[in-house]
Amino acid sequence: MKVLVTGGAGFIGSNFIYYMLKKHPEYELVCLDALTYAGNLSTLKDALQNPKFKFVKGDITDRTLVFDLFKQENFDVVVNFAAESHVDRSIENPEVFLKTNILGTQVLMDASLKYNVKRYHQISTDEVYGDLPLDKPELMFTETTPIHTSSPYSASKASADLLCLAYYRTFGLPVTISRCSNNYGPYHFPEKLIPLMIINALAEKSLPVYGKGENVRDWLYVEDHCKAIDVIIHKGKVGEVYNVGGHNEKKNIEIVKIIIDRLGKSEDLITYVTDRKGHDLRYAIDPTKITNELGWYPETKFEDGIEKTIKWYLENKPWWQEIVSGEYKNYYEKMYSDR
Ligand code: NAD
Ligand code: TYD
Predict the structure, then answer these.
(1) Is the distance from the beta carbon of residue 34 to the nearest atom of ligand 1 less than 6 Å?
(2) Is residue 39 within 6 Å of ligand 1 at its C-beta?
(3) Of 73, 145, 246, 312, which has the highest C-beta tally within 10 A?
(4) What CATH number does residue 237 fall under?
(5) Does residue 315 contact residue 187 with C-beta atoms inside 8 Å?
(6) What are phi and psi of 46, to 5 degrees?
């Protein structure tokens, strides 16, 4: 079996590559990644030692490059992680989100149709459902919750989902879609909440909490997400959407305090800053469908996952120090200096 993993130099895609190389050593994996600011080839350095793995630098919106690659490689399965993924950046500059997340998905599906891919799997997000109120904890997102997006990021992901379902219905492309909650774990880019707080806390820098820190996210350890995708591409039903979530809701401020506590730092580092525009209040996934139909459930307890994650950031300083000392400095300055 030959699998194309797009966006595999990013956070979840790289974790998926390592998971698959170990779980299915007989599979061939090809990673197509444009190496944007979020992609990092050093993340894949161990995978690159594996003869079953190949890296190709390229943009999923580049139709010629994508079609040539499909013709040459004859993929059985495509898993599309490639995306612009950060809500705050989508508020600053939506255009590239529409290009990569929507048009890139279309190019990959056109190539999948032409070269008879047996499964096209789209990595989506719970953010396509919009948000839930904070005062109704019983409400959760199911696969039939209406699409109702808030940010240019989530709108672009929802558009891609709708296109996938249209390609299934109209052209018979064998698609599956997974909509996952917030992931955390190794190789998470420093702009996102958990790595940002770990890295800032280690440097005794202020910890910028948006608004009052009351917003809730449902955190899933990245390896559990990888397991869910593996199960869906093997056992999932085409044309179906699967919600993937951790049953692990936490307020942002709770997350920040856990990190401070584990690192032995002071809560004085917490700084409440101007809220994100259109900030989604709460995400909560109901993963009953994937549990009942495919036997997947979140295995990693948050206490264990966050412990492993903090340990990873402590043991892999060169990985993130290289990022935060580069272009990221300008990003941080722009987003946080007078917030
Ligand atoms: P990431 O930003 O860490 O990585 C994205 C990767 O895609 C990078 O390697 C980047 O170089 C690559 N890429 C971007 N534009 C590209 C293009 N035009 N062509 C080829 N490659 C391109 O993102 P992530 O957090 O790993 O997210 C991966 C996927 O999972 C995304 O589709 C995202 O919407 C989805 N998702 C993420 C989360 C989360 O918590 N991080 C939760 C649910 C769903
Ligand atoms: P993020 O990691 O950007 O993921 P998403 O917006 O996709 O859920 O943010 C998680 C939560 O943390 C979100 O409610 C915004 C909040 N947040 C902060 O309070 N401070 C920060 O510096 C960042 C990056 C996020």
Answers:
(1) yes
(2) yes
(3) 246
(4) 3.40.50.720
(5) no
(6) -70, -40
Number of domains in the chain: 1
- Is residue 161, in this structure, part of any structural domain at all? yes
Q: Is the dihedral of CA 289, 291, 78, 16 positive or negative?
A: positive
Measured from the alpha carbon of residue 178, the closest ligand is 1
Element (H, E) at 231: helix 222-235
pTM: 0.98
- Amino acid 212 reads K
Distance 192 CA to ligand 2 centre (A): 6
**Residue type at 129?**
Y
Which residue out of 18, 129, 153, 167 is catalytically annotated? 153
> How many Å lie between the centroid of ligand 1 and the Cα of residue 162?
18
Segments in the chain below pLDDT 50? none
Position 42 scores a pLDDT of: 96
181: containing domain: 2-188+220-248+278-300
Q: Report whether residue 152 contacts ligand 2, using a CB cutoff of 6 Å.
A: no
